[in-house]
Amino acid sequence: SRMMKSEPLELSPRRSAGVSFAASLSYNGIRHHFGSKQVLNGIDLVAEPGGILCLLGPSGSGKTTLLRIAAGIERQTDGRLYLNEQEIAGPDVFLPPEQRGVGLMFQDYALFPHMTLAENVAFGLTGLSSRAQKEAAGTALERVGLSARASQYPHMLSGGEQQRVALARALAPRPSVLLMDEPFSGLDSRLKDTVRSDTLQILRETRATAIVVTHDAEEAMRMADRIALLRDGRLVQVGTAGDLYRRPADLFAAGFFSELN
Ligand code: ADP
């Protein structure tokens, strides 16, 4: 297909703290509490460059907090966070979100209704000339197969197409790590499979490092290179889908995958 043959995106002139596309992100002894409530209890975990890491676990297990710590929206109580070799958050260091070069895509990926798709995608591209913004937005829309519709408005698109625009918007600044929180939860089940496989293909083609939060074991199995299974702020098991499915670390892990076949 056309998308398979296209060249990798040019690196944006805007680099974040010297980090290039597809970085590794490492959590090192991360603890976090809200008031007296301990929600992360010593997390050691690496998102490999260009890989898709799924954070899987039941509601309240700490997945979103781990994502927010990576984004710099939340500062961990203890432990260190590294982007490649660079410490970006720790007891003495805190790089603000806009300097981390991480992209965010949350479940409420709402597009601005009064802006065209191109304008929506260009919106987050600060620090670029308007010409460079247009180019980057155009490239990102092409990447998700929607460049012909750049001047249309969100309401003219299906839910799945809107989700692809949101992905284009997240990828346009060339984030070193893309963080996705339950990215498909807003889609009906009929659409979900298609959008998910489209997203997977786009992530592969852009060679993005991605951390994807989900509570759905099947979704993690389909998407992840590696799955980190969480329970009550602790890692139960980290491994490939095959590892977790065939050799679950404990009854909790086994239970999580037991409904799958
Ligand atoms: P998950 O994404 O796995 O559902 P979260 O990371 O959202 O889990 O939440 C982990 C725990 O932290 C939950 O018990 C949640 O209630 C609590 N929590 C999350 N954010 C806050 C906050 N801002 N203040 C207090 N408690 C919070």
TrEMBL record:
One of its GO terms (biological process) is quaternary ammonium group transport. It comes from Fulvimarina manganoxydans. The keyword Ribosomal protein does not apply. It comes from the Bacteria. The lineage of its organism: Bacteria, Pseudomonadati, Pseudomonadota, Alphaproteobacteria, Hyphomicrobiales. The chain holds residues 3 to 263 of 372 of the full protein. This is Iron(III) transport system ATP-binding protein. Residues 25-257 form the ABC transporter domain. Keywords: ATP-binding, Cell membrane, Ion transport, Iron, Iron transport, Membrane, Nucleotide-binding, Transport. Belongs to the ABC transporter superfamily. GO terms for cellular component: membrane. One of its GO terms (molecular function) is ABC-type ferric iron transporter activity. The keyword Acyltransferase does not apply.
